[in-house]
Amino acid sequence: MPHPTQTEIIVIGAGIIGVTTALALQAEGHRVRLLDRKGVAAETSRGNAGAFAFAELEPLATPGIMRKAPKWLLDPLGPLSLRPAYAAQILPWMWHFWRATAPSRYEAAVQAQSGLMRLSQQALERLITRVDGAPLMRREGQLQVYEGQAQFAASLPAWDLRRRHGIAFDLLESPAVIAEIQPGLNPRFTHAGFTPGWMNTVDPARWTEHLAAAFVTAGGVIEVADVRAIQPREAGVDIITATGTRTAAQVIVSAGAWSHHLARTLGDRIPLETERGYNTTFPTASFDLRTHLTFSNHGFVVSRIGEGLRVGGAVELGGLNLPPNYRRAEILVRKTAEFLPGFDPNGGTQWMGFRPSLPDSLPVIARAPGADRVIYAFGHGHLGLTQSAGTAELVAALVAGREPAVSLIPFDPRRF
Description:
- Strands 4, 6, 7, 8, 15, 16, 17, 18 and 19 form a 9-stranded mixed β-sheet that branches.
- By secondary structure, the protein is α/β, with parallel strands linked by helices.
- Helix 1 (16-27) links the parallel strand 1 and strand 2 (32-36).
- It contains 11 helices and 21 strands.
- The chain has helices at 16-27, 44-47, 65-73, 91-100, 103-130, 148-164, 175-181, 204-217, 259-264, 327-339, 384-400; strands at residues 9-12, 32-36, 51-52, 80-82, 137-138, 142-146, 170-172, 191-195, 199-201, 221-224, 227-233, 236-241, 244-248, 250-253, 273-282, 292-295, 300-305, 308-317, 349-357, 364-368, 371-378.
- Helix 1 runs parallel beside helix 11 (384-400).
- The protein has a domain at 1-54 and 102-136 and 202-272 and 359-415: FAD/NAD(P)-binding domain (3-Layer(bba) Sandwich), CATH 3.50.50.60.
- Pfam families: DAO.
- Residues 9-398 form the FAD dependent oxidoreductase domain.
- This is FAD-dependent oxidoreductase.
- One of its GO terms (molecular function) is oxidoreductase activity.
- Keywords: Oxidoreductase.
């Protein structure tokens, strides 16, 4: 295997952000090497719901959410919870989260998210064409369902927000109309919003692996290496791993929920936390799912993965080291059996992943403040798959010294 050189770009992290970024840099003529401690799509990018959620513009930190948060956080099995053993450690993140709920900061985050979403949607279509990825895509829309008029009415501001940002949708106000899109739902779901332009991949792991294969075919190198630190030098960057030091001309940090540890070796303290998400994947589909289903008030989704179904969601703030609480996954499966009559809750495989989450729901996409040869591209929360192609194009623009397609000011790590 050839050794890294000072003319090579090293991308740290072979999840969907890192792989897509490596491919974008390679397309512009750079020699690129991917490093990952476990391999391609070995962690969070493997088990997500497979959705390109371009319609999801609203950050978690909305004005007024702090009045509701205590009730949610104290429910260990609710859609948003905080593990008591982690409460003290997450206090700095919660402070930044509280600041992000200010109306002016919220509006700025929505505007930034909208711009990144538009770019990412366009970039994804370019990427699909380039890598012959159409067979790995499903264009079946998304159905967001509500129980009764009160829940539906409470959702209308979010739908108005989407309308203002040019997202097409239809609001449905009877079980009969809902059944035309998705038959078989429990009739308790009386209202819904349908987003026809919503996309899914048939399998997020397969999509990431497909991109990695294209990267390797074009001459890219993927290496398993546990990166411990980054050290800038006058003519390059040293990457300290568990087995030695690599040197590169530039480094891209896209290591997901572990990225802030690497940023700290450069002196940058970025308030990255983990939204621990749980799911259960069933190898065969016992329910005829025709669109991506979102149970908004229960905090989970059901999507098609391969020939089967995946039930997942919820947010647990618990860091990287606490053991999983798979009761959360079990509750989602029990609800699915109730909401989708005929669904068989047996035979699934449970999984937990670490979504890299910043307090304002915006990623960091920028050169490291004190290390011009290092670029950060992490912190996308539950939108990593969605924003991967757009992020890759923005990183490629930074490396080339071009004006990026959207302003990167909202994604600067110094905003914290």
